[in-house]
């Protein structure tokens, strides 16, 4: 389980957690992460719960979420539906096509 509350962490590097077999949960909802690098969480086959702060997330690298658990639940915390939809598009393009997405309002 990775839970990032640090206000200083802004970027998750390419391949940072690639292939992490034990990773099941990722919580970036209280972080200021703006960038998730290429293949950062690729091949984390047990990753089933992801929470992101859509208000700060601007870039999601190629294949960042490729081969995560099918039907993973991804919650996007965002100020409005427009921001939510933009982030969902980024995540789907990064490989999380079959995930189940949900929206939570966050200022």
Structure description:
By secondary structure, the protein is α/β, with parallel strands linked by helices. The protein is 12% helix and 27% strand. The protein has 1 helix and 8 strands; from the N terminus they run βββββββαβ. It has one helix spanning 81-93, and strands at 2-3, 11-12, 25-28, 35-36, 49-53, 59-60, 73-78, 100-105. The strands form 2 sheets. Strands 1-3-5-7-8 form a 5-stranded parallel beta sheet, with helices on one face. It has a 3-stranded parallel beta sheet with strand order 2-4-6. The longest helix has 13 residues, at 81-93.
The largest sheet is: 5 strands, parallel
* Poorly predicted sequence stretches spanning 5 or more consecutive residues: none
Radius of gyration: 12 Å
- Share in β-strands: 25-35%
Q: Got a strand count?
A: 8
Total number of helices: 1
> How are helices and strands ordered from N to C?
EEEEEEEHE
Shape designation: globular
In summary, what is this structure?
With 107 residues, the protein is of the alpha/beta class.
């Amino acid at each position: 389980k990775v839970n990032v509350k640090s206000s200083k962490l802004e970027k998750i590097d390419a391949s940072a957690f690639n292939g992490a077999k034990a990773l099941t949960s990722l919580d970036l909802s209280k972080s200021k992460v703006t960038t998730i690098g290429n293949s950062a969480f690729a091949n984390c086959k047990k990753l089933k719960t992801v929470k992101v702060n859509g208000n700060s997330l601007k870039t999601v690298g190629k294949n960042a979420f490729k081969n995560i658990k099918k039907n993973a639940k991804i919650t996007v915390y965002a100020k409005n539906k427009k921001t939510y939809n933009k982030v969902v598009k980024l995540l789907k393009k990064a490989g999380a096509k079959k995930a189940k997405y949900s929206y939570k309002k966050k200022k």
